[in-house]
UniProtKB/TrEMBL annotation:
Broad class of enzyme this protein falls into: isomerase
Entries under InterPro entries matching the protein: UDP-GALP_mutase, UDP-GalPyranose_mutase_C
Top-level taxonomy: Bacteria, Pseudomonadati, Pseudomonadota, Gammaproteobacteria, Pseudomonadales
Transmembrane regions listed in the UniProt entry: none
Pfam families given in the database record: GLF (PF03275), NAD_binding_8 (PF13450)
Keywords: FAD, Flavoprotein, Isomerase
Family to which this protein belongs: Belongs to the UDP-galactopyranose/dTDP-fucopyranose mutase family.
Domain UDP-galactopyranose mutase C-terminal: 166-362
Gene Ontology molecular function, alphabetical: flavin adenine dinucleotide binding; UDP-galactopyranose mutase activity
Record protein name field: UDP-galactopyranose mutase
Cofactor requirement: FAD
């Protein structure tokens, strides 16, 4: 990958009247995809910076001390329904087919989540078929007139008992808020089924980059027009560095010095550990909805990567308020504050905000790739129009 020092970047930016065509802040999916497209598709000169010491953003993976491939920022499973996003990423990686399955620890049992026929039969000691399960859930459901919150949407569908067993504790831990204080879109991510499909996702494409995410990013970014500068915070950049456009994939409120107040983000503390056995748990992720357990889930990476190794590495996720911003928090008051920042952003056309933090959206990886490709298309069209004038 074409890494440079700050001095080289400054020198290169002064070679031409306008400096770099683009400075992109954040080398996650948003910034890296856009950098690749601008450099390869439009022949632009791009400086991509990140304050971390690596590219890949939250999807970064690496070999830990034991030699096991782990994800530093928690489990990342690629899934999408969009063929064009798979086609695009396939330029930089081969894939390993992988369908994600998750179990929830409920008392002494580990039950499939999303709730499905097997979950219901095991939890209630029954032997229902899908039609009976549907009737059973209907009898449990407690209709809510106006469905607004993450509590409403679940209680309306499956009733309070199952809601409390699988959703309330997990959500309170994950977000530091009761589900009744969160937008319905949050728990709506997890469906309920009455068949025995126990996959976490039902997307058409579900797979993992064969050699990992970091290897995919390195190939994506290995382009002549891209310079990469790591361990560099935008806020502390040398003013001598010249560039024509800025694309900012960090938190939008931070860019504006929090002048309208702080946008809340939820953080996580990751506890990484390696154990001396070949396999620790039955599936890649086990969720702990019980509020008395301080972590939300344990991930065992070898299930995701297919790696064979005599030991196995795990990550425990402990949600917290302070730390790196991992999750925008979907609720009306935050959306309102974001829109006030967006209005400020709209006044500065030379700066574009992108990605999960830049647009304050609870996006999956494929959605961020789609957002970056859409921005590229827009920039490409603008360039063509300019050329015609
Ligand atoms: P990020 O990956 O956050 O990248 C932003 C980058 O900008 C960071 O590297 C940061 O260091 C840098 N930056 C910020 N501010 C500055 C600054 N001022 N100066 C320099 N650099 C800066 N998605 C899925 O599709 N499947 C999953 O299974 C999945 N699991 C997830 C699990 C967890 C625990 C988390 C937190 C997210 C998960 N996601 C998953 C979502 C996925 O991580 C995001 O969709 C994706 O990584 C967002 O890419 P991004 O480029 O927008 O942001
Ligand atoms: N959720 C839950 N119990 C679970 C799994 C998920 O209550 O066993 C809720 C929780 O609020 C979580 C949300 O559903 O934040 C979305 O879950 P997902 O697995 O999509 O979260 P992510 O992988 O983005 O952290």
């Amino acid at each position: 990958m074409p890494q440079v020092t700050l001095n080289t970047a400054i020198e290169r930016s002064q070679d031409r009247a306008e400096g770099y065509d683009y400075l992109i802040v954040g080398a996650g999916f948003a910034g890296s995809v856009l950098a690749e497209r601008l450099a390869t598709g439009l022949g632009k000169r791009v400086l991509l910076i990140d304050r971390r010491e690596h590219v890949g953003g939250n999807a970064f993976d690496h070999l830990d001390e034991a030699g096991v491939l782990v994800h530093r920022y928690g489990p990342h499973i690629f899934h999408t329904n969009a063929q064009r996003i798979v086609d695009y990423l396939s330029r930089f990686t081969e894939w390993r087919p992988y369908e994600h399955r998750v179990l929830a620890q409920v008392g002494e049992q580990q039950l499939p989540i999303p709730i499905n026929l097997t979950t219901l039969n095991k939890l209630y000691g029954r032997d229902m078929d899908p039609t009976q399960a549907e009737a059973f859930l209907k009898s449990k459901a407690e209709p809510v007139e106006s469905i607004r919150t993450s509590e409403d949407v679940v209680v309306n569908q499956i009733g309070r008992e199952l809601y409390e067993t699988f959703f309330r504790g997990y959500t309170r831990k994950q977000w530091g808020l009761d589900p009744s204080q969160l937008d319905k879109s949050v728990t709506s991510r997890v469906p309920t089924r009455t068949n025995s499909d126990d996959r976490y996702f039902t997307d058409t494409f579900q797979m993992m980059p064969l050699h990992g995410y970091t290897a995919m990013f390195e190939k994506m970014l290995d382009q002549p027009g891209i310079d990469i500068l790591l361990q560099t915070d935008f806020a502390k950049l040398d003013p001598q560095l010249r560039y024509a456009h800025l694309v900012y994939c960090g938190p939008i409120d931070e860019y504006f010095g929090h002048r309208l107040g702080r946008l809340p983000y939820r953080s996580l503390r990751f506890e990484h550990t390696t154990v001396d056995k070949e396999q620790f748990q039955e599936v890649a992720v086990v969720n702990y909805p019980n509020e008395a357990v301080p972590y939300t889930r344990i991930t065992e990476y070898k299930h995701l990567t297919g790696q064979r190794h005599p030991r196995t590495s795990l990550t425990y996720e402990y949600p917290c308020a302070d730390g790196d911003p991992y999750y925008p928090i979907p609720r009306a008051e935050n959306a309102e504050l974001y829109h006030r920042y967006k209005a400020l952003a709209d006044e500065i056309p030379e700066v574009t905000f992108l990605g999960r933090l830049g647009t304050y959206k609870y996006y999956n990886m494929d959605q961020v790739v789609g957002q970056a490709l859409a921005l590229y298309k827009h920039l490409e069209q603008a360039e063509q129009t300019q050329g015609e004038e």
